[in-house]
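Lay summary. Proteins are chains of building blocks that fold into shapes, and those shapes determine what they do. In this project we predict the shape from the chain. Here is one chain we studied, written as its sequence of building blocks.
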Amino acid sequence: MSVIHMRDSASDAHPAAGLDVDQARSAAKSIRHYHDMLCVGCSKTIEFLDEVGLVGGPSRLLLRRAHIV
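And here is the predicted shape, written in a compact code that computers can read:
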């Protein structure tokens, strides 16, 4: 999931603004508010998937890396 939600939808925006792409992505990944809102936004979905047994093992690790769990 982290590949999906952290992928730059406007990948041309950083160079166009004169920013170093790697440095800008690194800064964006460290924004705590973004991670908190992502967690809040996904909480009901993750809760449901956990109830039906679809969250566990490797998927839980991926969700943790994506700051969703």
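What the prediction tells us: The longest helix spans residues 32-51.
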